[in-house]
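Retro notes
What went well: the complex prediction finally ran end to end.
Inputs used:
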Amino acid sequence: MPNPTAAMLVIGDEILSGRTQDTNTNHLAVKLTEIGIDLREVRVVGDEPADIVAAVNALRARFVYVFTSGGIGPTHDDITADCIATAFGVGIDVREDARAILATNYKNPDKELNEARLRMARIPDGASLIDNPISKAPGFRLGNVHVMAGVPLIFKSMLESILPTLTGGEPLLSVTVRIEAPEGDIAAHLGKLAKATPSLSFGSYPFIQNGVFGCNIVVRGTDKVKLKQAEQSLARLVEKLS
Amino acid sequence: MPNPTAAMLVIGDEILSGRTQDTNTNHLAVKLTEIGIDLREVRVVGDEPADIVAAVNALRARFVYVFTSGGIGPTHDDITADCIATAFGVGIDVREDARAILATNYKNPDKELNEARLRMARIPDGASLIDNPISKAPGFRLGNVHVMAGVPLIFKSMLESILPTLTGGEPLLSVTVRIEAPEGDIAAHLGKLAKATPSLSFGSYPFIQNGVFGCNIVVRGTDKVKLKQAEQSLARLVEKLS
């Protein structure tokens, strides 16, 4: 059976303007790979309701799991929860359990839990909450869409709390062989190896280091024995080149 | 007149598996912002022809400029050029000018310019070449789609060579005000300010540093005077909070 698929939707003008380098996608990718869920697409959109709604609906229809990051804070540009409600065609309002969790974050909740902060307790109808050990304001899951914060520390802790709820497949294993020769020298051999072993995927990732052109060959698959054979075949190639 | 729009398409299994952190998008975003082109969407897809073709066609229809990174090397997993040809419905073959450029990279091109490397001279019909000062193998532009390498150093140098060919708009200016208070304390004020100044965009980007919750307020727009006024209004807010 093929592994479950997933998509990531990063929401925020700050990524598209170049102000902020997204790192949540890479973290998610590493974690999903470990448990055998195949991240198949990533999209980044800005703080535009129509763009967010369209992306959520496109991705949740095509992939088993969807993860979003960004736009669930207390300020006017935090519109993700409303857009998720719109995408699913459900209502949204302050929910008592979310409000109670938020309140635990403040010494004087009657005063500090102001209108802006209460926005973070607005949860689309039918959603379940995602734990946020860092700053309390919860994320939520609605259908197959998991809505999480953009601040990397909070994104990571929310992801930790949902990983046990996901159904993974066979973990994708990989071996990497570093070759200090330009890709073009080994491409033919690599192509043959890939063709002969269709159950493994062979990626070639070129690098330039101190003026030397080389490449890392990454072989991925779920079969340990075949991976080992491919690694040995590549090691023989490295010997021949040196 | 609104600024021209753009989309980025990152191609490669290595991004989706988490092996590689994409940094080309951030670099592109910074450069486009400087010249008044609005990056509006980013997609990442794997080395799957159908996914690449669908993404190229979706993005080139909706945005003024499309930029791609990855998949134009000499190995079997480098399929971007073929997918672009498919997306545009045009042919693709080794082109003499691209072959001649590639040949300058080798001491003995008759021997070194092997079948694998010649793949890098396969250019879709009707495309114009994009200069690659680092490793010679050219990128190309077809219609509004600019196809570049995934290796960051080469991506950057290719981008430098096409930036002068793009038509920008009004550069987006921004000011950042750092506030050492949680977002929720300033959200109401910020929302009012944003409502009162619709020609500017106000983004709030929370951070956690040494256990302190704070936020950077980034105000963006093309009107220097209004930006200055917004900055002063936020500075007064910071004073009031301290």
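What we learned: The domain at 173-241 of chain B is CATH 3.30.70.600 (Alpha-Beta Plaits).
What to try next: split runs per interface for comparison.
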